[in-house]
Amino acid sequence: MERSLSRAGLILTGGGARAAYQVGVLKAVRDLLPEGTKNPFPVVCGTSAGAINAAVLAIYANDFRRGVGHLLEVWENFHVGRVYRADPWSMLKTSARWFASMLWIKRNSPASLFDNTPIREMLEKTLDFTRIQENIDKGELYAVSVTASGYSSGENVSFYQGGPGLEAWERTQRVGAATTLNVDYLMASSALPFLFPAVKLNREYFGDGSIRQIAPISPALHLGAERVLVIGTGRAMTEAARVRSSIYPSIAQIAGHALNSIFLDGLAVDLERLKRINRTVSLIPEDRRVEAGVHLRPVKVLVISPSESIERIAGKHVQKLPWTLKFVLGGIGAMNRNGSNLASYLLFEETYCRALVDLGYKDTMAQSEAMLEFLGVGR
Predict the structure, then answer these.
(1) Cystine design at 197: which of 37, 112, 127, 313 (Cβ 3.0–4.6 Å)?
(2) Phi, psi of 198 (to 5 degrees)
C-alpha cells in the first residue's frame, strides 16, 4: 500500500561505463514498485554518465517503467563505438591533436584522447528534451539537474530545470543555475578530463561534473528533496584494504587512482557530513530549531553501492575492447589486474555493462526491505 511521503530525490553519480550499475538498481526499483505507480523520484540529479541517466528519467518521468526500459535497452547493448571513436584513424587524429597542443604547435586545439561524437549523435537522435518541461508542468517531475565543472571559474555548477518556485543558489565553489537542458549540458557533465573534450556552455568551457564536486547530494536538497536515494559506483570506503606492493605503479594504476578520487571521494565525504548533520539536528527539538532560526532538517538517506569490486569485473571483460584501444591501454598497463581500474571507466561493452546491471539489481534486491520502506511500498 502506497503511503504519503516526503519528496524523494535520486542521486546518480559519475563513473563512465560504471554508470551501468545504476541501471541495474533502477531495474530493481521498477520491479519492486506495483504496476501503475507514479514516478518515485520527483527530483533527479545526475553527474557525468549519471547525468545522462538522470536526463532519460526526467524525459520519461510520466512513465518510470518505460524510462528504465529505455536505459536497459541502451546499456545492455552498448559497444565502445556508440560512445567514442576507437578506430585506428580516429585514434591517430585525436592523439596527433593532443601531442600537437602539448608541443605548442596548435595551442588552441581541443586536446582529448577520444572523439565522443557518437554518443552525442545518439543522444540527439533518441532524447526529446522538450518532454522535461512538459513533465514539470504536469506535475510528473519537480526538478532535474546535471552538474558540470567550469575550467575557468573552478566552480561546480548544477544546471537545473524545474518549477517556478525554485531559486538558484551560490555556495563556496558550487552554484545552482536555472536553464533549459539540452544535449550540450549532458556532454559537458560527462566530459572525462583528458579523455573527452570540454564543452562550452554560455561563456565558459565545462568538463566532467565530478571534478571538484565537494557536495554531490546538495543539489537534490536545494531542489526540494527531503529524502534521497544515492546510487554510488564504488565500494564503501570502509571496505578498502591496504595491500603491500613493491612494484612501482603503472600510468594506468595512477590514472585509475586519480579517477577514483574524482568520482568516489566526494560522495563518501558528503555522506559522512550528512550523517553528522542528521545526528546533530536530531539532538535539537524542532521548536528550539525554529526559535534559533536553524533551518537544517534531518534527511533520510538510502545508499546502494557495489558489493563487489568493479575493477575486478572490468578485468574479466577488458579483452572485449577494440584492438586499437587494447594496444593503447596495454602500453600504459591498463590491461593487467593492477591497471583495470582505468579500464572500468572506459569499458562501454555489452558483457561488462550487463555484468554491472546484474550486480546493481542483485545489490538492490538484497536491500529490498530498506528500498520498499524508502519507496513507501508495503508487501
Answers:
(1) 112
(2) -65, 160
Judged on CB neighbours under 10 Å (0-12, 13-18, 19+), 172 is: exposed
The pLDDT tens digits of the residues spanning 354-363 come to 999 999 999 9
Closest Cα to residue 247, out of 333, 325, 345, 305? 333
pLDDT, tens digit (0-9, with 9 covering 90-100), for 130-184: 999 999 999 999 999 999 999 999 899 999 999 888 999 998 888 999 999 999 9
pTM of the complete model? 0.87
Instruction: Report d(CA 331, CA 372) in Å as an integer.
Output: 47
Amino acid identity for residue 48 in this structure: S
Q: Is beta strand 143-150 parallel, antiparallel or unpaired with respect to 156-162?
A: antiparallel
pLDDT tens per residue across span 329-358: 766 666 666 667 788 888 899 999 999 999
Q: What span, in angstroms and rounded, lies between the C-alpha atoms of 136 and 131? A: 9
**Cα 324 to Cα 86, 156, 196, distances in angstroms:** 7, 34, 17
Euclidean distance between CA atoms 369 and 84, whole angstroms: 39
Asked if residues 18 and 344 have their Cβ atoms less than 8 Å apart, the reply is yes
Q: Which residue from 48, 187, 49, 66 is spatially nearest to 57, judged by alpha carbons?
A: 66
d(CA 287, CA 284): 8
Beta-bridged to residue 145, according to DSSP, are 45, 160
How far apart (Å, rounded) are the C-alpha atoms in residues 373 and 282?
A: 20
Per DSSP (E only), the strands in 13-163 are: 43-47, 143-150, 156-162
* Mean pLDDT, residues 59-72: 96
Beta-sheet strands, E only, within the chain: 8-12, 43-47, 143-150, 156-162, 169-171, 174-178, 199-201, 204-208, 227-231, 300-304
What would the DSSP string read from start to end of 193-224?
Answer: TTTS--EEETTEEEEETTTT-S-TTHHHHHTT
What's 229-284 look like in SS3? Answer: EEECCCCCHHHCCCCCCCCCCCHHHHHHHHHHHHHHHHHHHHHHHHHHHHHHHHCC
Name the pLDDT band for 35 (thresholds 50, 70, 90).
Answer: confident
Residue 129's pLDDT band (cuts 50, 70, 90): very high
* Burial of residue 132, with CB atoms counted within 10 A of its CB: 0-12 exposed, 13-18 middle, 19 or more buried: buried
Rounded Cα gap, residues 175 and 158, in angstroms = 6
